[in-house]
Amino acid sequence: xAEGPKFVRVDVAERVATITLSRPDALNALDRPMxxxxxxxxxxxxxxxxxxxxxxxGDGRAFCAGQDLNEPFGGDFPTLEDEVRDxxxxxxxxxxxxxxxxxxxxxxxAAGAGCSLALACDLRIAAEGxxxxxxxxxxxxxxxxxxxxxLPRLVGSARAAELxxxxxxxxxxxxxxxxxxxxxxxxxxxxxxxxALAARLAAGSPRAMALAKRALAYAESATLEEALNxxxxxxxxxxxxxxxxxxxxxxxxxxxPRFTGE
Length: 262
Known about the structure:
Layout: E1 8-13, E2 16-21, H1 32-47, E3 53-58, E4 62-64, H2 80-97, E5 102-106, E6 109-111, H3 113-120, E7 123-127, E8 131-133, H4 147-155, H5 157-166, E9 169-171, H6 172-178, E10 183-185, H7 190-202, H8 206-219, H9 224-239, H10 242-253
Parallel strand pairs: 2-3, 3-5, 4-6, 5-7, 6-8, 7-10
Antiparallel strand pairs: 1-2, 8-9
C-alpha cells in the first residue's frame, strides 16, 4: 500500500482548504519529498470543486525556512538549476494558476524559497512574530522561485533591490508597512483571522473569483488598452454565468447569494 503524504497536510472544511507545511523540526525546510507533496496538494485543491479558498501555512514556529541545505546537489543528484526548474518553478506556477484565492498565513520565519512561497500567495496575513528573509545571498545564491518577479511588484524596484542584495530580515511590521502583508495579528489569532478571510472569499462567486485572478495576472504585463480589452472579454464570460444571474436575483430579493460556480 502506498504511503500518504508525510510533510504536507491538506484539511478541508466549510469550502476552505488549509495546506500546512509540516516538517516543524526542520523549520519546514523544503526537501524533495516535501516539494513533491506540496505540488500534489496544490493540484488536489485546485481540482476539488468543494474548495473555494485556500490557506497556506506552516506547522510549528516557522512558515518555511526555504531549501533544506542538507540536501545534496550535483553528481548523482540534480543540479541547483535542475532543482529550480523542475521542482520549485512548478510549485510557484501552480500557486499562481490556482483558480481559487490563496491566503498565506505567515506564522513564523519565511526565508529563501519559503519567502518566495509567501510572496506567491494572492493575499498574506502575518503573525506578530513572523519575519521575511531573502537569505539567498548569505549562501552565495540569487533569489529564485519567483522572488525577482514578485518583490518589485509588491514594494517597488528600488526597495526590492535593497532587500534582494542586502538580504536583510523584515519583521512582520516592516512587511505590513511595505505592503507585503495586508495585516499583522497576534500569533494566537492568525488562523482565526485567516479562516475568517477565507470564509468571506469562499462565499463569493467561484467563477468571478477565478476570472478576477486571470485579469490581475494578465494586467501585470499588459498595456492599459490591453488590460481594458481583456476586462471586457472576461466580463462577457462572467455576465453569461449562472453566478451572475444568481447575484442579480439575490440583490433584488435582498438575500445572500448562493453561488455555484456555474
